[in-house]
TrEMBL record:
This is Optic atrophy 3. May play some role in mitochondrial processes. Keywords: Coiled coil. Belongs to the OPA3 family. The gene is Opa3. It comes from Mus musculus. The keyword Coiled coil applies.
Amino acid sequence: MVVGAFPMAKLFYLGIRQVSKPLANRIKDAARRSEFFKTYICLPPAQLYHWLEMRTKMRIMGFHAEAIKPLNEDAAAELGANLLGEAIIFAAAGSCLLLEFWRQKSSKHRREVAQVATVLSLREDVEYLENMLDEVQVQVQAALPRNSLDELRAELRAELRAELRTELQAELRAELQDELQKFRTQICKDCYEPELKPELQCPEAPKE
């Protein structure tokens, strides 16, 4: 039986949702106990939210009110505590998303740097081999006839190209297989959702 990758993102989101309830309750209790917390942290955003909400609803319904009655202190404190709890949860989730984006960007940058370094190394190897080939040609030029020298040069170039082609194909194949495996793993992590399949029922035998 094949088991897919466990969706860690969904587990983290569920954990945040579960933590939000006791966190909101603690904020409400702190708002009830602390006059400073209630006055300067909970009440201003609650009254602003209430004013915007009522103004929007009245505009949608076609009413034009000059003044909107503010909430009482208890209702405003509870609404402000709820808003603060939601803001904390949103900030935590946003921070996690930013960290994941930064991690993926850093990983991509490291892969690009590694690829550039590999290409530069291969170019240096090619230049070194070409210089060695030129030196060998200079050494054997005086001893071999012109036709033999051309044949040797062609053979050396063919061997060099075949060797370089084989090395490049092997490295590219390994990199492609690694990227494909990472892509498959990421797809399994993001998209796996177990489905409940209905049980198959045997057809009833025809009645005689």
